[in-house]
Structures are given as C-alpha cells and as structure tokens.
Amino acid sequence: MSYSRSDIEPQRSGIARHIPPEQFLRYVLIGGWNTVFGYSCFFLMNRWLATVMPSYSYIAANLSSNLIAITVAFLGYKWFVFRTKGNYLREWVRTLAVYSGSVLVSTLALAPLVGLIRHTTRYQSEAPYIAGAIVAIFTVVSSFLGHRHFSFGDRPVAIDK
Fold first, then answer.
1. DSSP string of 117-131?
2. Which of the 8 DSSP states describes residue 157?
C-alpha cells in the first residue's frame, strides 16, 4: 500500500497552501541577510549624510540604501530562493517594481514616524534608526508575496473581467 504526500501531511489552509515550506525557509534566510545588509546600508548612509544634511538625512539614506539593497536582494532571491534561470533584466525590473511600493511607503512613513518617536520618547538622535528598523519589518513581510507571485513567478497573471 502506498500513500501520497497529501495523505500523510495535514491539510494546509489559507496562505500556507501557496508557500512551499522549503522555499519559505530559504526566503527567511536570504531575507534575514538582506534585512541586515539593507539596514546596515541605511545606518552607514544616514551617519554619513547626517554630516552633510542633518535635518532629513534619513530620507536620502533610505532611498539610496534601498537601491543598493534591492539589487543585492534580487541576486539572493534569484540564485538561492526561487532558483530561476536567465531573464535577469526582466526579473530585476520586476523586483524593483515589487520593492518600489514598500520604498515609497517607508519613505513617506519615515518623517512622521521619526517625529513621533522624538516627541514621545527620549531617543532624539536614535529616532531615525528606530524608525528605519520599524519600516524594515513592513518591507520584509510585504516583499515575500510580491517576489513569489510577481518577480520570480513563472505563471502568467490572469486578469479577471
């Protein structure tokens, strides 16, 4: 008597059905690296830019560090997570498209979030770094599904009429 995988594994429901567990584990590992790398870029750029433009250095640091981190993230996802072949330019442009929404939201959220942290806590000079860490969490969560289904997805997108 033989058993199929669906007989042995409990039925997964909801969003878990669309995410292979081994692929998600690779995504978490590469995503963890990318988060540390991207936040380090933001931290170093903000420290450097704060000497040149002290008031809003974190906004320029967010935009410039994201461009570098997105390119590094693209290579990690392509080679280790989704393991696609060829199509570098098309997938890189799609990766930029997926991240552009979170970059826009994080850039727009940074100034009010920094102001809120400065107003409600004693962390004046640390506020941009705390706010940067908070928006990084949003980026990690929102990017997985975008990459899974758009950047590295091999299925055509169906358009409902």
1. HHHHSS-STTHHHHH
2. P
pTM: 0.65
In angstroms, the CA 159 to CA 156 distance is 9
- Asked if residue 16 has pLDDT above 70, the reply is no
Compute the distance between CA of residue 18 and CA of residue 40 in angstroms, rounded to an integer. 31
Q: Which amino acid, 53? A: M
Say which residues have a Cβ less than 8 Å from residue 2's Cβ, sequence separation at least 6: none
CA neighbor of 79 nearest in space, from 123, 39, 20, 34? 34
Would you say 159 and 30 are in contact if contact means Cβ atoms under 8 Å apart?
no
Sorted by sequence, the CB contacts under 8 Å of residue 25 that are 6+ apart come out as: none
